[in-house]
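Below: protein 1.
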Amino acid sequence: RDHCRNLQWEVESFVPLIALVFFYLQNNTIKTSRYNVFNFLPLNLFEQFQRLANAYFLVLLFLQLIPQISSLAWYTTVIPLMVVLSITAVKDAIDDMVKWLPGPLADILLLSSSEPYSLTYIETAELDGPEITEPGLFLLNFSSGKVTCESPNNKLDKFTGILTYKGKDFTLDHDKLLLRGCIIRNTDWCYGLLVFLFHLGPDTKLMQNCGKSTFKRTHMDHLLNVLVVWIFLFLGSMCFILAIGHGIWENKKGYYFQNYLPWKEYVPSSAVSAILVFWSYFIILNTMVPISLYVSVEIIRLGNSCYINWDRKMFYAPKNSPAQARTTTLNEELGQVKYVFSDKTGTLTQNIMVFNKCSINGMFYGMHAATKKFVLTSVFQETEKVDFSYNKLADPKFSFYDKTLVEAVKKGDRWVHLFFLSLSLCHTVMSEEKVEGKLVYQAQSPDEGALVTAARNFGFVFRYRTSETIAVVEMGETRVYQLLAILDFNNVRKRMSIVGRTPEDRVMLFCKGADTILCQLLHPSCRFLRDVTMEHLDDFAIEGLRTLMVAYRELDNSFFQAWSKKHSEACLSLENREHKMSSVYEEIEKDMMLLGATAIEDKLQDGVPETVATLNKAQIKMWVLTGDKQETAVNIAYACNIFEEEMDGMFIVEGKNNETVLQELRDKMKPESLLESDPVNIYLTSKPQMLRIPEEVPNGNYGLIINGCSLAYALEGNLELELVRTACMCKGVICCRMTPLQKAQVVEMVKRYKKVVTLAIGDGANDVSMIKAAHIGVGISGQEGMQAMLNSDYAFSQFRYLQRLLLVHGRWSYNRMCKFLSYFFYKNFAFTLVHFWYAFFSGFSAQTVYDTWFITFYNLVYTSLPVLGLSLFDQDVNETWSLRFPELYEPGQHNLYFNKKEFVKCLVHGIYSSFILFFIPMGTIYNSVRSDGKEISDYQSFSLIVQTSLLWVVTMQIALETTYWTMISHIFTWGSLGFYFCILFFLYSDGLCLMFPNVFQFLGVARNTLNLPQMWLSIVLSVILCILPVIGYQFLKPLFWPVNVDKIMDRIHLSTKLPLPPPTRTKLKYASCRHSAYAFSHKQGFGALITSGKILRSRVSKKNSFLFKK
């Protein structure tokens, strides 16, 4: 297995072979979840105890089992801990259960198929993005053999092996392999041998690229772990101080009062007593980190996840598909995203090509050109479709809205006819006509399919082809052209041509390709027409359309014969064949006459440009990671507003070695990075252990384009640092021709060097690796299967829902979680630290200041509903303003609302409040008596006054934090306070205290204390003194330390009185230098297959019975 794999079979026919394949695949289940029946309990507990708070309470439980130091029963910790672990485990199990993907999946070696020469058409959309059919080239019709091939690896474009049959060896390569993730098209049947199975491990090439499923934890979880350590150290410090105080007190006073306060027999000295009291206070003060924290966090996350699931504005009616929060642990992370990594095909686009406009002989044809004038006066008027009913062979699905083009065709315009004739001849499309008049085109690229379909509807119908002829129905008349040569497309030539002989015996060359190339090959007489056409191409480019220029040349017969001889010699050459053929092509592809240009719309999903523009305003950077070609990816980037015409520069990295890539990366954006004086170099030199790169501000607005080959070098060693520095300063980044593994590597690179939250979004199996690698993975349930969605954290059907997911749900979730944590820590600090002050007046005896039942109910009942109401329903602004002002999203990216600094503020506020809550009640009842002269400064009365004042203070505090009041909020906030008094009278009632005197010991305290004026004076003073600094801070902060969000909030508050004007649409500016909108997702090599005749079915149907003979 380390070096190669041997596969051997002996079967009498293909039927048992298929049965054998079927048998193996029955249990061939793909698991994309991280748990199974055997590892769930240990793995889940391991993950949960990575939360230090859970580990802290486990240690606390063991301490409570020691009677010498425990002042609380052990079950007060073990029961809540079990509840927390159980609830979290059930939630994790439910989240994980949806990530099972059953199915028969394997890589298969093609043996035979229904097509001529055993070709098989496959759609590789899930592997490399674009929808392309590729042929396999292998025919086998035998019953036994042996295959030796490479061991499983992640190289999607490479496969090596040897087939041994009847003593002969046959080489195997990538063309013979059907990869998992491919979809077989236009092929009735095929037989194959399973090579890489998933049944015994992740052997398939696609799964080798998918990466491992990992447990994703939010930045807030990591921060909480750090804060728990801080709290633990603070707790230890307080316990140490109190233990020292206890030792001093026992040594100076307690030692002499042993007749009244006898020491236990296991306490020989004050030092030992101090050590035991240290652990007693450690248990008493454990509410500094309440165990209910994580339960509350999970409930809040679950509630915010339900909001996503219930959001009707993220429901896609055509597919009956709602948005899904497939995990409940990452909601607040949605409000902190800085980088979005997106696939192209099926994510930004619909992968549907539509012939939208064209320019023919200087005339502009298309919907917007025809309606330019009346669009301004009648925006909402629908334009009628062109009626193609006169053409019986027209495609009923085709739509066009400019009638002038049809009229030009019907009038017999020579240039229009020649233009569409070129489109109907210059292609590699295959035609199938199973039913008379019902043509089905099999296009190697969707671009070609759209062009040939357009020609078909305008009256130039490509009917069928052989290896030597092409039949076209021109305006109802069938004409057969002799195919003399196909000058195939490649990425360097950026064009393809065909040479054909017309029925009139004229030799014609038709060419289509990139305008940047064809402009140099035109006849000088076309200069004016070229300039006009280039203006039209600029218009097409601004609209984000994919363009091709179309030209022709009439050839002299003798010239063609001489050229054909050179062409044959180049084809048979054994050395430098590609170069020689390219030179021969250039001899004939010159002095061409320009016909016009096509503009195809690679239909974007609805709302994509607006969504990208909105995300840009929110300071979210967009990177497109695609397996598609560079031209296509760049074209879509302009259409989606990732790139803009007015950008200061576009940098292309296309080096073929380390040195070139390094130089391109440094020279492009930051030439000073070569110098030792560069601030970042100084920073990294001074702190070599720091992997985080500080933010750098570019001196302009730039875009970066890099292909997969250059990226392979850039992701190695120190080049990675240069890449991330350059790329992160760009407004948009396009990485094209990438493998799935490279997508994950790019995401991991940004995570490693930048302290940011990343989000990856895609719809195909080739996106699974980056979805798993990013902090947040979003799957689109599109045309490329369900694997991206099944591996995602969130899923929906349209890219445009991303802005709502982030700017509305994400921002609300982040704000709510920050408010929750700030308030939760504050209320528990204020609650717990009262014990610290009380210790100085109780001989440091580890005596609690509150009633035991109040300690039990404080987090569970009295303060749970208000904080949940705040965390589930609060909105600083509504969804309309959240989308209107994307800049409100920025604080989450910098984590401004809850961080270490904010935590320290909570701690200081809690210490101050606890000080007030202890000394104000003590001062009000000190040496005080009732109206009847009885003493009121007893322990139980003091305890009741302190805990009641505490509840009033924390209730008023949460009322100040709430910005969006609903009926539920009022019920939760004020109802909890009222419920406290109801419980108070019940727990301190005469009947309950007389029935269980050992459990309920505060007999009559509520009745006797609540009518004291000193108690209400204590409550009023405590509330005023605790809340007044908060009000002052909230008032002064926007005045003296304003941030951008404060200014926006002022605008929003002002607009409630004076509504803002509707947003104005800014017109796109023309760039000083144009970019080519050329894009063509064609692959090299298909032309040779056509001329060889291997992919052409006989026009006479034949029975393929030989395949079923024994």
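Below: protein 2.
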Amino acid sequence: MAVPARTGTATPGVYRQYGQQQPVQRVGPNVTDDYERWYTEATSSNRMVLSIRSGIHSEIAWALDRLYRLCANDQFILKTIPGLTDALFEWPEWYATEGYLVAEKYRLFAMPDTEDRKRRHALESIFILRNSATNEPNAYELAHHPRTLPLLFDALSNLIPDTDMNAEFVLNAMELLQAISAGIILRGFTSKLKDPLPTLLQIAGHSSNRSLIIASLSLLAQLFSNTQNIICLDKDSPALAASLRYLPLFVDRPLVEASLNYLYAHLSHSPMAKAFLHHPLMPSTLRVLVSFLLSEQVEETVNLDISADTRAIPATSVVTPIHDLTKEELETLIPMPEPQRCYEWMKIMFVATPEGELTQVDFWNLYKDAFTPFADHHPVLVASDVIKNVNVVFPQAQAMVLPGPPQRFIVRGVDRRKDTQVAPRFKCLWDRSQCSAAPFETPRDLYEHILEHLESSENPEPPCLWATCPLQPTPKQQLRPHILTHLASSQPPAKHPTQDDMITVASDGESYPFVNPTTRKPPPPRHTSISYTRPVADPPSAALTALLIIRILFRSSFVATTDTAPRADGDHFGFPGVVEDDEGDDVVVDIGGELEGERRGRRAFGLSPAQISPGRDEQHFWQELLSLEPDRAFLTRLLTALPKDECLSTHKLLFHALFTVCLSFAADRKGKDTRTHAVDTLSIMLRTVLAKNLAGWEVMEIFAVEVNDADRVFMEFVGMIADVLGDEKAPESLRHRVLQLAVVFTCSISQLSPGAYLLRRDLFPSIVKVITSPGTQRFTFEASLLLSILANFHKSDAAKLNPYLQRIRDTKDTVLMRKICWAATFALDAAVKAYQEISDDSIPTFAKSIGALLTSFRPDRALAVQSIDPPRELFRNQPIEATVSLLPVFEFLYFNPLFAQVLIDVIPPPDSKPAPDGKQSTQVPPLAYNILSLSSYVLTHASSSPSPRTLAYGNLALNTLLVMSENIQIMSVFCKPASSKEAIRLCRQRLPLLPVPSPTRAPVCALLDCCVLWLRHNLHKRLEVSTFISCVWTCHRVIWYLQKERRRLEYDWLELWKAIVDLLGFLSGKLDSLVTTGGVERLVQETTRLLDLALRRGDLFLPTPSALHEFIYEVVRSSAVIRKQTLLLQSLEKPSPADHRASLRSDTVSKALARILSTATYYEEQLSSAGTHSAKDAFRIVSKDIEQNGLHNAHDVDDTDPPKHADDVVGFIRVACADGLALMP
């Protein structure tokens, strides 16, 4: 068995023996460092030989380095250089006889430099000998050299192999011995040669070094393959125990192959095979061998349909009558106020159906008939209002007029609700089946009904009256759980997967139910097919070795006996099949009994093996398969239904084969359709398999079979993605498909360990090419999404190791940034329009009001006007998945300082060219304005759904606003008045509405409005404290910038002050019922600091004295709420704070709160002494005092820049992966 050479340095490609060189005329010798021929001259004065024997360490190291580069070449022959072989033996012999003693003295400490250099010389020398032995002439030379065996046997006998100092030396010695072991006989050693067998058995059986174990088992297998050495075999050999111990480790292919090779060499000797039949692990070893064979065998299933023509009829008839209002439903609806009653009535009476259609007259008549009788006490709506409400309950519905004659006024998209037949298994059988109640829809309703029977009984210990239940009188408390035993499950009875709701009949005249089912003629089967499996490819060599071992044991059990052959019955499944456990009567008493061993072997086996037919040509099969376009819907449905455990067992090899084959076809530039189909197949397979909640190692096992092989397989996958994305000559459609494949993989793998392979090869240049290339720039949305998800891989714990974060931080490619902004602008604009399609929140004008009034009288436009405050459930699916494009914008804005300028610049269209008449082409407003518009909608509806997704987007939006507020460049632009063309559309879909803004006000006003919307509409018991803190920080940063730059901002400041005071009031009043993860104290502190800053510097940023007076009056009016914050902070304060910063921040907040309360108390005393009786008088007195005496208790503020609080949104990656995956086909 040849030992492959191990190299670590590139080896020159061409070498010729010195004797074969043609004489050439040279001016002088070429002695450059990379010219090896000069040092291989076959002379006694060869420089390398002289250097090795010089005793000078630097010369020795130089010569060994030369030989290290030469030894792996097949034209390097040791005997052509006189004295080289003997020179190479000197250092290893020293170490094997003397040097190892020196090394043992320094087990715990570093060796002296001189001794360590000698040890390194010995290691390098034996390594060169080992590599040289891979060449047959060198192996022959070393095998017959008188110094070889003494050196190797001394090394194996003297050195302790498991120490770090000796492990590499022993490993090289064993591999060198394996290369020359063909003629070695393990007996008859002289006194000078030590027996290496005990050491080899000790290493194989007890070593913890994997490499040494593999080398020892391989060497022993090679030695025992010589028939003259089989006398040294022992049935209790430690190597045998080791090979059995490591055999089940299928994931470690080298170790399993070494174990199989030794086991085969051991059992090839007939006495050892017969002795192994007595081994207690023999049956389990057979199981492992069979399992290994099955795992290595890739099969395909062939189905042959032999079904006959049949006739089937429905087993049951389901009646679906139109639903009418029940008495209970009507009694519930009548007292409700309008339009809520109309909403609830529509939800009960109708369902959303895309193809449904009802006339508007039907809507009105049904409503009128139901509620007109009660109109005296409960007014009803007019017809037009009823029709308008349809679109509130069913947003997809549409009123329209169908042309005639006659014209039809209809509503499309809704239909009448239909009642399905109630399952009879929920029928009450109380009172011995005499209960007259109708069947119930669910077991819960039936259980509550039975409890009514039970409660109506005056007997404290009534009997169970369910049908024929024999339960004796029992206390009611114990009878309640007993009743549950009579209730059927809410799910229908389980059926076989092949069973449907049809009945097969034998003739056309039969009907169901049958008159006499026991005498009916049996019908033919409807679905009959023959399925069989066949191998796809030839088995690997390791599987053949396992099969040979099984054959040896089988012959040892059967061939040598006269007993009958194994039988085929219910307990035996053939060879190589299921292996049975030993029964009690099979315990061997006489271990040396040959017949007993054969009987144990026959019990372990079943029937004789069957022949396996050869498989088809694999490459031709895959070529034909991938030439067909994959059926995405069918494959998705099939792979989704596949259980997780089958993916890890039965189908693991199939997934691996399909994955690797698709990779090779996708990387083949010569393929056309097969290349595209391979990428589509990979996308479908990865999306469905990775959705099964797999662990990282399970993903690697499915697609790489062995975890050790995962590096090669997944790096080929990543390499294919990088090559195709970066290949500008590849078809655009193919690059787009590969880009989507990369997004599917990154979103599906999320934070699992296989995602790290995407970090080992930098995809940033390939992604940039996709974004900046004219032909693929339309795919910028997917490309930027991929980049942001890659940048978020384990960002919280391994950010420094992520190359994409560094790329985003360092890039200066403004073209790339503009393309990302261009794609994000349209994605965010689509997200805003999705909100507006649910409810039109445009600012009303006089023309719009008149137009809405006139069109409301037309039946075909009855749905044109909607409610100003639609139900929250209409927004539960918002924002749309395309909003995830905000993530790459945030990443660039947070990490790259150049992105801020791109964010506020007007965005030109991609590849825009000047117009011929000199006019500028149409430009898109800055992305920053779209972010403000979208943030207003996201923050308004963040709590409309209980899903954490909407809150995650709210947190992302607020953190984006915080980063913008902390950027001086952005704030300087935001504080300038905007032109009418750059108007920002803010959300007006929830009451109370924001004041109507001026079209030219500064964009920073919209930023503050977004904070107000969050503070107004998200105060709930399940409080998102961290997001509220980010909101307060944003307001604080804006006010700090305004007062520092002395900018008096025209803004409705009173809306902000009220929102902040409402937040403090909510915290002080609902603290005990809040459900949070902590941080309420920090939120109160930051809010207090915000009020203190505004109070002390209000005269620098508030636009007018009246605005300052309103602010002070709001503080005075809310003094009771502010005073509660003192008690709130005291209750939240920890007894012994360990954080010095937190303690310092608490002292600062206490002073700020004292200043606020001092100001409020002063003006309260002024109002009390003046005896005011109205709010108007109070405001007038406060204003007059400020104008006369100035603001009370005003103090200067430190002008140093406050710390930046913007933080990374690490937790958003899960939402980003889910939405990114939903956007992919």
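Residues 466 and 486 are 8 Å apart (CA to CA).
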